[in-house]
Design goal:
Layout lengths: L5 E3 L1 H13 L6 E8 L5 E8 L7 E5 L2 E5 L4 H4 L2 E7 L4 E6 L3 E4 L6 E3 L12
Parallel strand pairs: 1-6, 2-5
Antiparallel strand pairs: 2-3, 4-5, 6-7, 8-9
Length: about 120
Amino acid sequence: MPIPVMKLTDRAAARVRDIIERSETPIAGLRVGVKKGGCAGMEYTMDYAAGPEKGDEIIQDKGVTVMVEPQALLFLLGTEMDYVTEKMSSRFVFNNPNQVSACGCGESIEIVPAKPDGLRAAE
């Protein structure tokens, strides 16, 4: 059975649903990706998505849509997106089996791409 690119917790799905409902312009969901940056080498990206772009992986989970950018697929394979609320902040977090380290500030991560069979490249 293939590993899903991403799945969402109930909290993440509820937050995505809330974002879509409150948007002033129509959006279909969120687009998730990764980019080079930060002290650990990579950062997650999220943006509003009016619809899918060429090559996006469409994730339909718990009634919401998340689009994963094609260049991020192997970095996000098997990731669970969650939404946490703490005393002074709330944010999306990514429980990513491909993440090997993170910086102290929590803003950037080091990720190794997964192999197509679902194993990490480092294995």
